[in-house]
Amino acid sequence: MTVNVTPVDHAAAALRPRLGDRLLTSDDARFVTTAAVAIDGPQGPPGMIARPRDAAEVSLVVTAAQDAGLPIAVRGGGHSFGRFGWVEDGLVLDLRLLDHVDLDPAARVGRAGGGTTAGAYTAAAGELGLATGFGDTASVGIAGLTLGGGVGYLSRRDGLTLDNLIAADVVLADGRQVRASADEEPELFWALRGGGGNFGVVTRLHLRLVEQRQVYGGVLMVPLTARALADAATIAYDADENLTVMVNALVAPPVPFVPEAVHGKPVLMMEIAWAGDPADGEAAVAPLRALGAPYLDLLGPKPYAALFEGAPGGPMLHGVGRTGFAAAAAVDDGWAGRVLDLLATSTAAMTIVGLRPLGGAIARVPHEATAFAHRGHELVVSTTAMAPAPVVAAAQAWSDGAAAALGLDGDAYANFLGPVGPEHSRRAYPGATWDRLVAAKAAYDPRNVFRSNHNVPPAR
Ligand SMILES: Cc1cc2nc3c(=O)[nH]c(=O)nc-3n(C[C@H](O)[C@H](O)[C@H](O)COP(=O)(O)OP(=O)(O)OC[C@H]3O[C@@H](n4cnc5c(N)ncnc54)[C@H](O)[C@@H]3O)c2cc1C
Fold first, then answer.
1. Of 164, 179, 211, which residue is a domain's last?
2. Is 71 in the pocket of ligand 1 (CB under 6 A)?
3. Which one of 2, 140, 169, 400 is at 20 to 30 Å from 407 when CA atoms are compared?
4. What count of Cα atoms within 13 Å lies in the side-chain half-sphere of residue 350?
């Protein structure tokens, strides 16, 4: 009798003694829910899920998967638009148990496990009146967000999240544990800051903390007109660096926090934070309130951490999207009018054209200092459509068409880049950044073990 030992059996034999029930295979009742990621997709199920608790176990998993010939996907918060925390028939290295947050207020340093979410870190730091700027969503993983960039409520004042990364503890493809910082493994540190999950598994991030107790902010929703959208883009880009305005043009979805009378109407939804003196907040947001009679005005003084409360729920949808950059001046009445026309043609459950300002502290960092190659751009633009599986092709067609109509065919921000494939990854890492990343990949992951990402193949 011959016994067929599969790669999953092989890896399980190596890992089960150490991980026990933290190793899940498809016969486990918890498998489907544990594998689930935020953005649904068409791939088949993973072969197994390993849930290490520390860097030594991460190293063991990385080695065992390679010995068994299993492809690896590293899963943090599970929010990648490329669905990179999932690999059909392969091993999902699930970092969610590496979620310890350790804050040093005197040194202004936050240390957090590679599976920590933005919400958990922000809540813990908020207790001390401190913060590290992440994005706008609590459930996003801080490692995935940081390694790709990190554009959020504090980035125009404090820089991208990756600009606030002081050091990272990393398990490399050969299982070695190293620290990357300005002084240790400096080329790895350069590549990690923008190059995504290409170079290893980050088990701990060391992040700069700033004092940030209160903000004046929240959500403001006004009627969507071309004039209002163009003005919002100008205000967002020209604003004092303490003011962040993330601008979303969409058809209002039927969700509880949106007044019923507004459901189905084109709206301009702005996520706003004034991070300066809260007493000045009312004046800072006045130009935004003047954009139209508000459908919804949730602006007010609140703890910074409150901006991350109330994470969205609901059924998993396929999310498809395109992304690129635009100059603030390009968002004029004509460009904004095209957005209104495009929204009117979408049949997806939820369709958003999003604009996020860069500039400020982001633009002041020398461009070659990190592998984030987009500091000269002014606005990140994305065209996102969310749809249930049967109609996802129509959503993709809408998103592709919208991106073409809005001129989003050049550089792209990796964290918002959904489509997977070499031609898309090249857009995230243009010019000399690509060449330097390729060389770093050859040094740190020559066999391309970490390839479930916007992949940088190693130089031959
Ligand atoms: C609802 C939503 C809101 C978002 N908001 C923002 C925002 O405001 N600002 C912004 O900049 N981005 C935002 N993003 C994009 C987000 O930053 C990226 O999708 C990011 O990659 C998500 O990280 P994750 O750990 O949650 O995802 P995962 O799918 O778990 O991981 C994504 C990628 O990161 C790598 N990775 C994750 N953790 C590690 C680790 N510890 N070590 C090595 N590699 C790792 C994985 O290999 C994979 O390539 C948002 C995404 C969604 C879906």
1. 211
2. no
3. 140
4. 17
